[in-house]
Q: What sequence folds into this?
């Protein structure tokens, strides 16, 4: 693993990957014969990718109005590690960030990106998204999706786009990344129960998809897609799930 020190801050990587349950050496991808249609057959631990009934992503059609308070996020800005893990770039940090949901507090584990975005809103697919993965003290997962259109340059992500690790296994340390500044001012969201969108497709994941989208520039998106041309799982059946919305 090559490390490029871009900042003065150096720290130990203490967070375990959220996908620790994945069979470690099972190769999967976004194209056949190891693509999304085959994930469930690649390893017995991935069976839910085929047989699950609460899978993600979904085409979001809000069907259950409710009272969802604006997302209560707490992410201190600071140094982060950006790792190329083969399927996306993954951002981790030692800072103790968390999101407070009505079901409790979930600690930030990692952030990664998809191009195009995986979830759709009323059939619309955005060109880029970020998934912020969290875990509570009991191991329950909660993911926040930020959607991005092509438009103005994303200033918060500029340091990341400017120095992306280009090969699988490579990491870059950025001296500062402000996760909170990735969020829109109005933090209303859709909420539903789903799964991880990569093997092992674990269910019971609490999803929060922000309604207001941000932007990345065409140049930023192109730079990401040079590394990851397509890393989105196709839309999964909703199977009558509730999609709550408020705000
Ligand atoms: Zn994701």
A:
């Amino acid at each position: 693993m090559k490390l490029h020190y871009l900042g003065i801050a150096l720290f130990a990587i203490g967070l375990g990957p959220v996908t620790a349950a994945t069979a470690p050496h099972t190769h999967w991808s976004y194209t056949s014969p190891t693509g999304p249609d085959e994930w469930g057959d690649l390893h017995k631990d991935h069976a839910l990718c085929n047989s699950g009934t609460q899978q993600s992503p979904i085409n979001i059609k809000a069907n259950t109005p409710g009272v969802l308070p604006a997302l209560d996020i707490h992410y201190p800005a600071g140094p982060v590690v950006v790792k190329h893990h083969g399927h996306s770039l993954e951002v981790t940090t030692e800072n103790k960030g968390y999101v407070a949901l009505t079901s409790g507090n979930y600690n930030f584990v990692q952030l990664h990106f998809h191009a195009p975005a995986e979830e759709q809103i009323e059939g619309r697919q955005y060109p880029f998204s970020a998934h912020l993965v969290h875990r509570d003290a009991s191991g329950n997962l909660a993911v926040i999706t930020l959607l991005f259109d092509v438009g103005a340059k994303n200033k918060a992500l500029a340091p990341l786009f400017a120095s992306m690790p280009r090969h699988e296994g490579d990491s870059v340390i950025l001296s500062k990344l402000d996760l909170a500044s990735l969020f829109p001012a109005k933090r209303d969201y859709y909420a539903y129960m789903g799964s991880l969108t990569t093997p092992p497709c674990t269910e019971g994941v609490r999803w929060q998809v922000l309604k207001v989208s941000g932007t990345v520039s065409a140049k930023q998106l192109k730079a990401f897609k040079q590394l990851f041309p397509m890393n989105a799982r196709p839309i999964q059946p909703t199977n009558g799930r509730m999609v709550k919305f408020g705000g």
